[in-house]
Amino acid sequence: MRMTLRLSTTVALVLVLFAGVATLQYAADLWRTQGPQPKPSTPSLALVRSVDLGLHATAAAFLWINTIIELPFLQDGYPKFAADLALINNLDPKFSFPYAFTVLVLPNTKYPDRINETLRIGELGVAQAEPDWRIPFYLATTYHLELKDKVNAARYFDIAAQTPDAPYYIRRFSINYGIAQSDRERTRQVWQFIHDHANEETTKERAKAYLARLDMFDYLDAAVKVYKQKYSAYPKTLDELVTKRIVPELPTDPFGFEFVIDSSGLVGINKTKE
């Protein structure tokens, strides 16, 4: 009986909240239709809180339904979208999807100023939203593609890889950012920079793990070359490096992946799903 009463009360509160926000939206729409008007304004945080009955997260979710359609066209201009997004973030700072969606869609090479806004919104989301791998992953992609900033790209790819519930393929991609032979020395410089300038000990330890891993790739590449010179063929598996006494043992990947070799002699990581 009590459970039914609580459910009924919750439903009633949600309906009242919906009616209150819908009334605000109707009033705004009515105001717009009365002759030429300025661009629509965003309701104040205080006004929304006065009608949402304390259900700030629900109000934020409802307002996001209207706000999401503003991207990517921004028919009312970016300032309107920014104000609406700020309202949603203030109502429910932990609501992760608005940050993730904005960081994914907002960047546009035709509007360079949006890149800085993307970074600001993404970094805010990483700092205050519920853990969501999409925010740091899309942020890292922006740093990599738009700014060619490999330091921050590596930093945020790593945060994405550590986020709980990040899909396996996201972890694999993020952790293996920059491991190709042609990129390895630059990646080593990136992680050395992160290590040397980090204030948090956990970040330093994470950077050490990446640096050690890059050394492991170099170590295995060198061993494969020795094997090739000695036997005029590449090993079919890395275990042959041990059985043929090229190396005493195979290194253990600090991130839990398995080192493998392909038919062309390139060392990589196991792509089999966990």
- Calculate the terminal CA-CA distance, rounded to whole Å: 45 Å
* Widest β-sheet, arrangement of strands: 1-2
Overall radius of gyration:
26 Å
Overall average pLDDT: 87
Number of helices: 12
Biggest beta sheet summary: 2 strands, antiparallel
| Helical content (DSSP H or I, runs of 4+) | 55-70%
Q: What string gives the helices and strands in order?
A: HHHHHHHHHHHHEE
Q: How many strand segments?
A: 2
Principal-axis shape: elongated
Low-confidence stretches: 1-17
Quick rundown:
The protein contains 12 helices and 2 strands. It is mainly alpha-helical.
Account of the protein in words:
This protein is an all-alpha fold. The chain has a domain at 178-274. It is built from 12 helices and 2 strands. It has helices spanning 2-33, 45-51, 56-67, 78-91, 97-105, 113-128, 134-146, 150-162, 168-175, 181-197, 201-231, 239-243; strands at 259-261, 267-269. The chain has a two-stranded antiparallel sheet. It is elongated.
